[in-house]
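User: Can you predict the 3D structure for this chain?
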Amino acid sequence: MAVSKPPITAELTWEGGLRFRSKTPRTEIVLDSEGTAGPTPPEAVAMALAGCMAIDVADIVTKGRHPLTLLRATIVGERIPDPQGYFVHFTLHFVVVGNVPAHDIQRAIDLSHER
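Assistant: Here is the predicted structure, written as C-alpha cells:
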C-alpha cells in the first residue's frame, strides 16, 4: 500500500477590500484582486501550474545526470471574457540550456504533463 502525502492546508484571512493573506504551515503570500500587494488568484494558479511542471522537468533532467544550466518556464493562461474569467487553456513554453538531448527534455515534459 502506497503511503500518501499529508494533506495541504492553507488559511486565508481577509485584510480588507479584495485582499487576503494566505498561509500554509510553512509560508505565506498575499492574494490581491488588484494585483498590487501580491498575485491575483488566477495569477497564483498559473504560477503554481508552471512551478509544478518546471520543478518536475528539472528533477527528471537532473536525475538523468544531464547538466542543466538554465530552465525557464513561461505560461499563458487563456480565460473567458466574462467576469468570472475562468481558464480554458494553458500554453507552457520551456527554455532549457545545458547538455541535455532534446528527446530527454521532451520526455521530462511529457512525464510531468501526465502527472
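The chain is about 30% helix and 35% strand. The radius of gyration is 17 Å.
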